[in-house]
Amino acid sequence: MSLINKNSALNALLEASLGTVTTQENLDEATIRNGVDAGSMVLLGNPNHTNVRATLVGRPATIKVNANIGTSPMLNNTEREMKKLASAEEAGAHTIMDLSTAGDLDGIRTAMLTKSPLPMGTVPLYALAKKRMDADCDPTDFEHQEFLDEIESQAKQGVDFMTLHVGVTRRAAELAETGGRVLGIVSRGGSITARWMARRKEENPLLTHWGEVIEICREHNVTLSLGDGMRPGAGADAGDAAQWEEVIVLADAGRQAREAGCQVMIEGPGHVPMNLVAEHIATMKRIVDNAPLYVLGPLVTDAAPGYDHITAAIGGSIAAMSGADFLCYVTPAEHLTLPDAADVREGVMASRIAAQAAEVALGRPEAVARDREISAARKTLEWDRLTAAALDPLMVEHRRGEHKTEKECAMCGKFCAIRMLDGTL
Amino acid sequence: MSLINKNSALNALLEASLGTVTTQENLDEATIRNGVDAGSMVLLGNPNHTNVRATLVGRPATIKVNANIGTSPMLNNTEREMKKLASAEEAGAHTIMDLSTAGDLDGIRTAMLTKSPLPMGTVPLYALAKKRMDADCDPTDFEHQEFLDEIESQAKQGVDFMTLHVGVTRRAAELAETGGRVLGIVSRGGSITARWMARRKEENPLLTHWGEVIEICREHNVTLSLGDGMRPGAGADAGDAAQWEEVIVLADAGRQAREAGCQVMIEGPGHVPMNLVAEHIATMKRIVDNAPLYVLGPLVTDAAPGYDHITAAIGGSIAAMSGADFLCYVTPAEHLTLPDAADVREGVMASRIAAQAAEVALGRPEAVARDREISAARKTLEWDRLTAAALDPLMVEHRRGEHKTEKECAMCGKFCAIRMLDGTL
């Protein structure tokens, strides 16, 4: 197979961006071409998204971080979301997803696409459900063609990747319902799809029209992000039959898409106890033919609402060390409320820390060099040098505060362990 | 051997607290007695610390969290530290360490011991060095007997555990200096000891007088926390010869102490890349005869100053899953400035999250039940029930904010995945 030759939009993007991407990733052209062609890497970028920053996801490219933003029915303020977009960019997110479910969705989406060069993802199903809910209809009161039309419309607007829950089959939904889950289905896309199937007693509309979906997305180089509608929403549910049924279906849908020239990522599990994270990631990678893995968390405990950026950093770092390629951030607001701009910043930083820790563990030269640079600056108490190499220089400046002109930090002062032995004290 | 029979203060503490501790830990009396007698668990509590809460550390007891507080030369304010003490207690720390290096150290220490029932630890060497520095002398200008006197004085004040850097031998210091470390010695106690040895060309004073130290500490049931003066302060330095030389010396010092009836914990590494954490912990536990392991971090990347509570939560959770018993918190202020009360709270929470995640991974019934309770409350959207089971109920209340009267949270509102399928929408 040759995925690139079947996708002229991708081919053009690759030609235009290869110089930049090889430098950014410190990879040679052949590695990138071969990886993208085999589907172990994807190059995000829809030609309709003007000025999009072509972004490579998948080993051996660096681990990427996504920030979810967007309105909700209770907090519907476009300006607030545009601030969150700016916050995500400033904090160093590689991509964003607009998950808006309230307001003028087309307007918000096109404003974000115009504003930001970061590849942007969406969940097209939200737009369908919102229209029906606004009209006081059942959220699932839509036909197959409307789903395809929404996907095509967003592809033409420039959306770079789309979460499509093609693996939420009737069998998977039944397994989730009857399999003794503590928390059932916790994915919004998953639950809407399950509701649609239950009402109509029909199979997942994406699955029955998968060839058409692929064709639309291939044409605009929209990368398919095969959604984890069956992801466990509780540690107790991790690794059950519903979860793996979906992975198996996603693997097959992914193969079809790649054979037709469409790029594919696979979305990964949600709440997973620490002892299972590495094996889940390795098993998923195996089943999905080494496609790039895009994980939400995983959250390694359910008990820390208000701190799920930390539970996700623990799970995300282990996942990334074990094969995950793309970390979807989780903010401190998760499970409680819609994040604000400060939450977005904290979420991105937590995911970047997880990625850095994983890349150090994997021995990636750039990550190791960054850690070494910081350590060398600590040895000589060169604060400007340390600040420049830190993941968040602004935070370092802020925390040093009124003591920033001192040689030692305010934690130890003249008790500094470094100075105790460097001959200066 | 029978440690308990050689330590009458411990024996009395055990008799007085066994009822409470068996309930708290959900362990039977024989397990606790045998563990304490064998040294795989320690029961913290100095009879001179009135109203001390006897606290069990070591498998199979629950994982404990320590909060470091105390003044520094640049931020010397006793009231601030008493607020941090209150913050640590409120956040759920099991122990505190007073690491003050400025002000009236005896006054601060006794005030904290009077105020708090939490077992309290110190580093007696700080008091010695501070006195000399206040007198414009070299910080290491002290004699053996003064060190023993300081330990005895603090033991009589009621200090429950003391960090003593007995493993900083001349050989270890030489290995740290000549072994190609990026960052040398980063422990304050380690660097002061190395300086003392270098100036006097003598072996570590604790090591040469170890029997006397043991005798003082046994008498007051002060648990020896054998300090990691050679801990790596950079990921690049992790696992070097200096680090392991110290562990080997600590293991021997620990055996001597236990044989004499004195309780012992071993302090663990600082900066360690993720891929090495589990093996470092397992190797340490093996070398030190399964003594309780008290770890600082480990910090899995050097590159995140301002967020080291997160890098420590990643390393701490892996360490605790791998055998560590006691997590010393790290706050967002680490490496930059002295923490304030808010930092203390955040640091304790991050360590409690790491402990909870590890205990879930280990299948500890109480931790698994807590996660399940939260998940069950999520399923039925019972917010009061969820809040009560959360690690930080105050944070949950705070973040739900103005939307706390709504059925769904403000992240999804009517798009709630749970409600989409529960028949109520």
Automatic annotation (TrEMBL), chains A, B:
Keywords noted in UniProt: 4Fe-4S, Iron, Iron-sulfur, Lyase, Metal-binding, S-adenosyl-L-methionine, Zinc
Source organism superkingdom: Bacteria
EC assignment: 4.1.99.17
Cofactor list: [4Fe-4S] cluster
Entries under InterPro entries matching the protein: ThiC/Bza_core_dom, ThiC/BzaA/B
Protein's recorded name: Phosphomethylpyrimidine synthase
Lineage: Bacteria, Pseudomonadati, Thermodesulfobacteriota, Desulfovibrionia, Desulfovibrionales
